[in-house]
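User: Fold this; tokens only.

Assistant: Input:
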Amino acid sequence: MATGTANNAVPLDGNYKPVNGLLVSPGTGLTMPQGGKDILSDPITGQQYAPTVAQVTQGMPSILQKTAAVSTGSVATLAKAFANNVTAGNSIVVVAACGNGTAMTVADSLSNTYVSAINAPNSTTFETQIFFAVNTPGGANTVTVTNAGTAASVAVEIYEVNGLIAQVQAQPDQTSISTGTGTTASTPNIAASVSNSLAFAGVAIGTGVVTNFAAGTGLTYDSSTQQPATAAGLFQFASLSGYLGSTNALAPSATWTTSRAWSMAVAIFKPVSLGVQGTVQIGGYNYTRVTSAATTLVKTGPGVLHAVACNTPTSTGTIELDDAITNTTPIIGKILFAAAATPSTVVYDVAFTTGLSVTVAVATVDATIIWK
């Protein structure tokens, strides 16, 4: 988008009201830092436009930190601390594996609630599982994975992620699992429902160790394979992740040498998407319909007149648009309907300062004023 210089202010109106420097959605209570509120002028065309009035800092997800751990021998639990304090409001993703097929559980020292996104047991022998927690408190954090079955080998990779928050519905977005034996682990193709998503995958390997482990296209091998000392059920584990900039299908896979039994789980998490100004409308505009011969005050204070949709034009009918709160000057424009006029839309895309009033001279005129 073109950038330019500010010349006057766009009011913060609609459902989002300024509260202590924040914009607040009354529907969710979600708050965001308040951003710019100026009308700008395109330096090339001179056309004025209104930018969004909030800056979304968590819209595109990213991995802020990650770390891994592996057990020695058979254990009931395995704990791992993040190297740095986690930031309040972020999310935590846990990819884990253990040497039996019983579902694991996760807890941490910040009292987060973890939800299991997907679990992939290879019979009762070993499994991999993905968990997540949202809107974490800030501070030092140790994550603990509990093996719900008999004591066995356990491995884990933990991630702190921003841009994935509780207001995102239907999380995780998509999941996929598979198990087998061989030198390649893969699951059915999986695709994010929206762009700018994150994919996480875990690969658990049983019956023996492997070498030359490699992630397939679209995924990153996050740390060297975790190989439990004195393995019990789980012989190796790898955690993978990938940024999905589009909704194209991902074919999750990993390869190695020497045929082994394996299990693989994949989960995609979609990013937060926030409305950032007023009552959310398609295209970001508000509308006011006028259907009587009268002066209608559409908006008090500065804003932008985008267009006038003439739904039912009437011969000799007129619509006057004023930069004022009554029918007076300065006049932004006038629309005069000729005989046998047909429905049409007049685009203005101009800024007004005092307010926007619309005066219709013929009662049968029906028009929609599109503004913000």
